[in-house]
Design brief:
- With 482 residues, the protein is mainly β.
- The protein is built from four helices and 27 strands.
- The strands form seven sheets. A six-stranded antiparallel barrel has the order 5-6-7-19-18-8.
- Strand 21 and strand 22 form a beta hairpin.
Length: 482
């Protein structure tokens, strides 16, 4: 079952030629998100499972508050000059914390109070942008990471800078690399800063995730330790608490079976399943407080401009994973992630059972033999909201939802146009600018007068206190959502 635009799924492990069109500027700004991980699981024969989650591989989740520190820029396109706001957005992190971000997606609108998820570069337009590393260099060497404006002005040879002109110059330099935009800052000092940043930038590696678990779903037999699930984090330590359902007997341990309550980068976690345990599944979350690395991308949970992190307070981050076990039969685990290179969603099913797992996806049937895994790419149109469902025996279903936003131009004739200072928009935060929290009365670029869309899918894993690990047992004939 697959409820998005037309397409057939293709089973593949290789990367197809990128489908990319480069446009003029696109706005970005934001980083950090809570730990909602998109995973899929199936218990043993006869056990139904229904799970649904937004696509997220862990890290920070934040809400867009608007463009707060900005000046003006001029975009040159098709023989016309368009004046637009350029500067820093702000976001509020779920669970605590704040971010400052820049836009990397000037043509798509932002939605007021949109939800944003920390996202790997490969799942955004940065994945196939040869200049993505230069954007990170700019972020590391300009405002607000460098908050001594006098020192920044001296190094760049710009003359006096204010917060507004420093933010505008930085945004203009980013747009030149994120969107191949022909754009200039209106202020002379801001333009000099943009030129210096553009000319000085060198390739810099993508920063690591603030917190993620890999893989997001595992499976195995009862009486064994199922895993490992590896922790990836920039935090010094993450919290792992005992399972809420202590009666199940399932524990989170290390490889030797020692109970785990805290973890660090590289720690391997296992689900210790008691012998004779009824077929079922369990979910865990880990949580930390950390400063999300500058340069992490943030993608909208709904259609909203992609952002890139420019500054972070200490913020709450989390991630989750699921284990499935059975005594016999097929024992699959299902995960999904965006594949911008192929323009779709990769759905991966593995099977640790002793029987084949046959499932239906995108109108086609697939079979995974014991001990094997298979990845199926479901094509999705750019800017398309997708709803991908995997169905299997015993009433099993697993649904993955999100929006594919991989290009720096809008898709099709959706009525979205770049907003300028002469063309008002009703949203309070959009590509390149906003009227919120700053002097002046600039209309938003990339704006839309559509009612803001807030993610309608509830977060599957609820983070409790400083970190939580909890288990939902599924028995024969039962169905529950993570």
């Amino acid at each position: 079952m697959f409820s998005v635009s037309s397409a057939t799924a293709s089973s593949s492990t290789t990367t197809a030629d990128p489908r990319r069109t480069r446009g003029i500027a696109r706005l970005t700004a934001s980083v950090v998100a809570t730990g909602l991980v998109m995973v899929g699981v199936l218990t043993g024969a006869g056990v139904a499972t229904a799970d649904e989650a937004l696509q997220h591989q862990g890290g920070a989740t934040a809400t867009l508050d608007g463009l707060k520190t900005f000046d003006t820029a001029v975009l040159h396109t098709d023989g016309e000059d368009q004046k637009l706001p350029a500067g820093l957005f702000e976001m509020t992190v779920d669970g605590g914390g704040n971010f400052k971000t820049y836009c990397i997606d000037i043509h798509n609108p932002t939605q007021d109070q949109a939800k944003y998820l920390e996202t790997p570069w490969s799942q955004t337009s940065l994945g196939t942008n040869k200049n993505a590393g230069k954007i990170r260099w700019i972020l590391e060497h300009s405002y607000p990471k460098v908050n001594d404006l006098q020192a920044l002005a001296e190094e760049a040879g710009t003359g006096p800078l204010t917060e507004r002109t420093a933010a505008a110059g930085t945004q203009v330099a980013i747009w030149r690399y994120s969107d191949d935009a022909d754009v200039n800052a209106s202020d002379d000092q801001a333009e000099k800063l943009a030129d210096w940043l553009e000319e000085s930038a060198t390739d810099t590696a993508e920063p690591k995730a603030s917190l993620a678990l890999e893989p997001a779903a595992v499976s195995g037999r009862s009486g064994q330790r199922v895993g490992p699930v590896t922790v990836h984090t920039n935090a010094g330590q993450v919290s792992v608490t005992p399972p809420a359902d202590s009666a199940s007997g399932v524990k989170v341990t290390d490889k030797k079976g020692k109970a785990v309550t805290t973890a660090t980068d590289g720690t391997e976690l296992y689900f210790d399943i008691p012998a004779g345990a009824a077929d079922g599944s369990a979910s865990l979350t880990v949580q930390a407080t950390t400063s999300v690395p500058v340069g992490r991308a943030f993608a909208g949970a709904t259609k909203s401009q992609t952002q890139i992190l420019a500054g972070s307070s200490e913020s709450t981050v989390s991630a989750g994973a699921t284990a499935t076990w059975a005594g016999k039969g097929a024992i699959p685990a299902v995960t999904a992630k965006k594949n911008c290179a192929k323009g779709g969603v990769d759905v991966t099913a593995s099977n640790e059972g002793d029987e084949a797992f046959t499932y239906e996806l995108a109108g086609a049937q697939h079979t995974v033999e014991p001990g094997k895994s298979e990845t199926v790419t479901v094509p999705v149109a750019e800017d398309q909201a997708y709803d991908v469902t995997v169905t299997g025996p015993g009433g099993f279903t697993r649904t993955f939802k999100g929006v594919l936003d991989c290009l720096t131009t809008g898709s099709g004739n959706d009525g979205v146009t770049t907003q300028t200072v002469d063309k008002p928009a009703t949203t309070t935060a959009t590509a390149g600018g906003s009227t919120a929290g700053a002097e002046g009365n600039l209309a938003e670029t990339g704006g839309s007068n559509a009612t803001p869309i807030i993610a309608g899918v509830a977060i599957a894993l609820v983070v409790i206190g400083g970190g939580a690990v909890f288990f939902l047992r599924r028995r024969n004939g039962q169905s529950s959502a993570e």
